Structure formats: C-alpha cells, structure tokens
C-alpha cells in the first residue's frame, strides 16, 4: 500500500502550440494555437492561459471569428486566471530569487568559479567555463537536491527518535503529485521540492510519513500518532495545501 500527500497543483510543462495574438475589446490577448484531429474549434483556459485547437481545414480567420464570438467569456476567464496564485518560474539569471526553506535567496552568478554556495541569503553559482544556462540550471538543481537529501535525512532521524523507531531509508522523489510516501517495507520517499517550503512544513511531512510506520492508513488512530509527533498538524496540513500553488518551477 502506498500512501501519499497530494500536491494540490502539478507544475505546468512547457505549453504546446504556436503563440498568436488577437484583439478582443480593448485588449490584445495572446493564445497558444495548434492544429488537432477534431471536428470543431475548441478553446480552454487553464494553467497555461488561453489555448485554441482547430481542425486542419479551418482558416485563421474562422478561428479568430470563433474567439471573438466568445470574447466576453475569454476576457472574464483570463482576468480570473491572472488573479489566481501561480508558481514562479526561475530564470537562473543574476539577481533572480528562489525560495529555500521559505526564505527568498538571491541568485548570484560568479565568474571564474565552479562551485555553488549559500551565504547570507545569496546563492552563489560559479559560472563554469562553458556555463550555458541549461548546464547551470542542471548543476544548481543537483546542488539543491543534495541539500534537500541532507536536511530531510536529519529531520527524519529527529522524528524517528521521537517515535521510537530506527531512522528509515530515505529516497528523494520528484513526483508531480505527491509530497511524500511511506511504503510497507518502511522506506520513506520525500519530494525534494519540499526544500522550497519553511522547515516546519518539511517537518510536518516527515512526521506524517513516519506515522505511517505505525498506521498504514489515514484513520483517527493515524492522526493521533501524527499529533503526538507534531501537535500543530492541522494548521501545517492546511498551509501545505496552500503552498503547493506557490512552488517555484526550476
Ligand atoms: Zn499519509
């Protein structure tokens, strides 16, 4: 049996389709357009904004007429979409910020160095000789995962001692849909993206997964074990649910 804490929102992948613009009322609206095997034009507004799909034979003029017909709906949905909380996409340039343990740290690109270090709210990333952005991002994420592993390991041993069990084996996950998982063989998986959140939320997930070593379910008895380890669990559970909308996309 696998138990998990659901993430409320999975981060968006890169949007598909070509970007086009249309004027609706006084507003210029961008949308992603793609051809699809379908009978009619379809339109959705989701985490990626406005997306339109049309059959191969439809002209752009027809597509635009279709969007204009629904202009009021589009504009209302888009303004709701803009007001909704949205994860920040980190662009890995000098001065960009990223949350680590709930605190924003500023990215500083350091020429002539290869290492990565965290001091006084600055994440110094050495620009290796061939420091193209993709490689830099990859190195930084690997470093962040390493830190996550070390920290989560420490917190697991603190709470395992409190529960009176040996520290379980830890694996990092990058699952899109869960914070943590405790398996019947006693291994605990924690989502490395928890490292963006304040320590008390990391601790809640640790306590939650460890409590599954006693109760492999979400019964009242399970929550009593959680409460014994982490008295403020109700508050943390709510906070965690809200935080999942704000995880940065690295
Ligand atoms: Zn659970």
Give the tags.
250 residues; alpha/beta; Zincin-like; four-stranded mixed beta sheet; 6 helices; 35% helix; 27% strand; binds zinc ion
Main sheet characteristics:
4 strands, mixed
**What is the count of DSSP helices, taking H or I runs of 4+ residues?**
6
* Overall shape: globular
Distance between the termini: 31 Å
Q: Briefly, what CATH class of the domain at 144-246? A: Alpha Beta
CATH homology superfamily name of the domain at 144-246:
Metalloproteases ("zincins"), catalytic domain
Proportion of residues in extended strands: 25-35%
CATH architectural type of the domain at 144-246: 2-Layer Sandwich
Order of helices and strands: EEEEEHHEEEEHEEEHHH
In the CATH scheme, what's the topology name of the domain at 144-246? Answer: Zincin-like
Widest sheet: strand ordering = 1-11-12-10
Walk me through the structure.
- This protein has helices at 60-69, 71-83, 133-163, 199-211, 220-229, 233-243; strands spanning 3-6, 18-24, 27-35, 42-46, 49-54, 97-100, 103-111, 116-119, 122-127, 170-173, 178-182, 188-191.
- By secondary structure, it is α/β, with parallel strands linked by helices.
- Among the domains are: 18-83, no CATH class; 144-246, Zincin-like (2-Layer Sandwich).
- The strands form 3 sheets. The protein has a 4-stranded mixed β-sheet with strand order 1-11-12-10, covered by helices on one side. The chain has a 4-stranded mixed β-sheet with strand order 2-3-5-4, covered by helices on one side. A 4-stranded mixed β-sheet has the order 6-7-9-8, covered by helices on one side.
- A hairpin with a 2-residue loop joins strand 8 (116-119) and strand 9 (122-127).
- Helix 4 packs across helix 5.
- The two termini are 31 Å apart.
- Mean pLDDT is 88; it is low at 8-14.
- Zinc ion is lined by residues 3, 5, 208, 212, 218.
- Zinc ion (ZN) binds at residues 3, 5, 208, 212, 218.
């Amino acid at each position: 049996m696998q138990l998990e804490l659901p993430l409320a929102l999975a981060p968006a992948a890169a949007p598909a389709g070509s970007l086009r613009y249309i004027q609706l009322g006084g507003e210029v609206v961008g949308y992603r357009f793609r051809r699809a095997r379908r009978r009619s034009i379809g339109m959705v507004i989701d985490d990626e904004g406005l997306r339109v799909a049309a059959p191969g034979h439809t002209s752009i003029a027809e597509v635009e007429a279709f969007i204009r017909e629904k202009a009021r709906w589009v504009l209302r949905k888009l303004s709701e979409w803009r007001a909704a909380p949205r994860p920040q996409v980190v662009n890995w340039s000098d001065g960009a910020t990223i949350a680590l343990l709930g605190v924003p740290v500023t990215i500083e690109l350091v020429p002539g160095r290869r290492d990565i270090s965290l001091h006084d709210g600055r994440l110094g990333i050495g620009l290796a000789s061939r420091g193209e952005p993709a490689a830099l991002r990859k190195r930084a994420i690997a470093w962040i995962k390493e830190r996550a592993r070390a920290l989560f390991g420490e917190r697991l041993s603190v709470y395992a001692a409190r529960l009176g069990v040996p520290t379980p084996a830890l694996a990092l996950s990058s699952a899109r849909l869960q914070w943590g998982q405790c398996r019947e063989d006693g291994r605990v998986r924690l989502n490395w993206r928890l490292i963006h959140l304040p320590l008390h939320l990391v601790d809640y997930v640790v306590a939650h997964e460890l409590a599954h070593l006693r109760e492999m379910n979400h019964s009242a008895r399970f929550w009593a074990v959680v409460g014994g380890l982490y008295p403020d669990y109700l508050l943390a559970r709510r906070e965690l649910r809200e935080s999942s909308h704000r995880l940065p996309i690295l």
